[in-house]
Amino acid sequence: MRRRRILGVKFVYIAVLAGILAMVWDRVFEDYHKQVTEAGEVLRPVVQQGHAGPAGSVTFSPDGRWLASGSWDGTIKLWNVADGALLRTFQRYTGEVGSVAFSPDGRRLVSVVRDSTIKLWNVADGVLFRTFQEAGVGPVAFSPDGRWLASCSQDGTIKLWHVADGVLLRTFHTGWVRSVTLSPDGRRLVSNGEDGTIKLWNVADGTLLRAFQRHIGTVRSVTLSPDGRRLASCDWDGPIKLWDVADGTLLRTFQRHPRCVGIEIFSADSRWLVSMDEDRTIKLWNVVDGALLRTFQRHTGTVRSVTLSPDGRWLASGDRLDGIIKLWSVADGTLLRTFQAHIGTVRSVTLSPDGKLLASAGNDGMVRVWNPQDATLLITLFAFGADTSVTFTPEGFFAGTGEFNKYVHFVKGLQVYHFNQFYDAFYRPDLVEKKLKGEDVSQKSGGLRIEDAIKNNEPVKS
User: Fold this and answer.
1) Which of 17, 50, 310, 359 is least surrounded by Cβ atoms within 10 Å, i.e. has the fewest?
2) Distances (CA, A) of 172 to 59, 158, 161, 190, 220
């Protein structure tokens, strides 16, 4: 009885260190659990840390080789997509990292800290390349050639920066600004503000070209079409409006959208757009005539993030309530598959440039990579400090960098097993890499399961 109490205390200690991650692993290993469940007890890894706070932003590099994640714990991490290894952790912030984005050539990574600064990093070596002394309030925007950067500030201005030397090129004076968006040719800049106005600026000389002023409340979301001819916007309480960029004409109002949460994306040919509604639906609109083409409506919570496949055939959406990602057919609105991705809000979903990988980030601090074709979880990424990480596949294979073995234990019931006891059989970086390429690695352990590995090992003693 005393031994069970001691082990129970140790289990509680590790569970506290793991926090919400212990519950997450029940989902990560769901298929595997079906094979190893014994007398109601399941063997699972317990990890002491992923991102210590919600992972709020995740993005692929333009060439699809890297994955960057930013978290409310003040960290930015760069991952190798080929094998899931943590390449580096960029200097820790004191505030929440609101967003991260790669430059068009993939050589730089920009990060925005809520109510703090904008920093530009060298991807190759992790060196801080430039700090822009600016209180950013929203995502920044690169010019198409990556030569300059636009930001919006709490002081009600938009600033244009020269990336190479950090020189402030010009300031656009306006009201409280929520975000900035660049036209595809980089010649015009769109800002949206708290006063319900949208403004179009000439980047070359900073002049105001026109203002779109028919919103009643705060403009929540603005998106430019890929051809640069149309602009879609929505406010907190009203429907979506579609504008002609050339002359500022209001082309139409999408009346069947009671409360827009955000406009995520136009199709590549600019013929339709996708929006999110507070009624937990996603809507697909015909830009030409304003018709509602279809409604995607099987989320249990408000949709937080949407991404579209490069070929426009399907879209993925993340839920802010139950950690669900859904994959939909754009052609007919069919729900193709459901991912049980995170605990709590799915804050970001994004596709690799070739559409073969889907990455997600959530309030549970997890970053995961999926095969969108069959909803298969490929890997889950964990990081500990600046240079230590571990990557797991659902089959139990793992790879890591640094002294990752110090941060992971396996738990079954009230018994705790050290990570090193599974190292020889399941430390397989080669299989983690194969998994990311879409190969089946379920039969690669020679019939040995993680469950089998504990038979000849004793639990960790107190």
Assistant:
1) 310
2) 28, 5, 12, 11, 20
Q: Read off the pLDDT of each residue in 376-381 and give the average, rounded to a whole number.
A: 85
DSSP-based three-state secondary structure for 22: helix
Distance between CA atoms of 238 and 133, rounded to whole angstroms? 35
Token pair for 177? 């600004």
Amino acid at residue number 252: R
Letter for the amino acid at 9? Answer: V
Range of the domain at 432: 2-49+385-453
Kindly write down the DSSP assignment for every residue of 151-170, as one continuous string. EEBTTSEEEEEETTT--EEE
For the entire predicted model, the pTM comes to 0.75
What DSSP string describes 330-349?
TTT--EEEEEE--SS-EEEE
Instruction: Determine contact, residues 131/117, Cβ cutoff 8 Å.
Output: yes
Strands (E), 61-124: 66-71, 76-80, 86-90, 97-102, 108-113, 118-122
Please check whether residue 75 is in contact with residue 436, taking contact to mean a CB–CB distance below 8 angstroms. no
Inter-CA distances, 456 with 36, 162, 272, 428, Å: 16, 62, 60, 21
- Number of domains forming the structure of the chain: 1
Sequence-distant contacts of 373-380: CB under 8 A, at least 24 apart: 374/337, 375/327, 375/337, 375/338, 375/339, 377/28, 377/339, 378/435, 378/436, 378/438, 379/84, 379/432, 379/435, 379/436, 380/24, 380/28
pLDDT tens per residue, range 1-58? 444 433 333 333 333 333 333 333 333 344 333 333 333 344 445 444 444 445 667 8
- Encode pLDDT of 173-223 as tens digits: 766 777 788 898 999 999 887 777 888 999 999 899 998 877 777 777 888
Token pair of 265, please?
A: 């994306």
